[in-house]
Amino acid sequence: AKLLVLHGPNLNLLGTREPEIYGRATLASIDARLAARAQAAGHALECLQSNAEHVLIERVHRAREDGTALILLNPAAFTHTSVALRDALAAVAIPFIEVHLSNVHAREAFRRHSYFSDLAIGVIAGFGADSYELALDAALRRLAALTH
Ligand code: DQA
Asked: Where are the alpha helices (DSSP H) in 18-125?
């Protein structure tokens, strides 16, 4: 199946951005690990990072046409602000897993609310770069369950 990983604003700075909160792994290294694991399991995985809300929204729209089976989504700061990106995910109705590197519940109060969690299959937060791998594990299990 086709998997899509979407990273929101400022995640291009991973590695140097507040490493005590987000860790030292770069986005390129995270994406490479995810793609290798998905491929080993017989799936295709594409990653996109954008700092622009409309770019993420338009990629979600295209996911409906390109046969994307599941999305891993770290909306970053858009988690707490973007009704528009939420509406895009609701519109295409593609199942998605919400991912955060940090434990958003252990930080500022404004990070506790997400515009995505109630639409997501589930949420993984607080495990640093491993959050993405745990989310991919969950996605692979779900895809396997669907095809058996
Ligand atoms: C984040 C948490 C958000 O609150 C923050 O705005 C981010 C990253 C995370 O992965 O921990 O940019 O989504």
From this structure: 19-22, 27-40, 53-65, 83-92
Domain 2-134 has CATH 3.40.50.280: no
Domains of the chain, residue spans: 2-134
ipTM of the shown complex: 0.99
Pocket test for ligand 1, best of 7, 79, 117 (most atoms within 8 A of CB): 79
With a threshold of 0.95, does the pTM exceed it? yes
SS3 assignment, position 71: strand
Q: Which residue among 7, 100, 115, 132 is the active-site one?
A: 100
**Within 10 A of 118 (CB to CB), how many other CB atoms are there?**
9
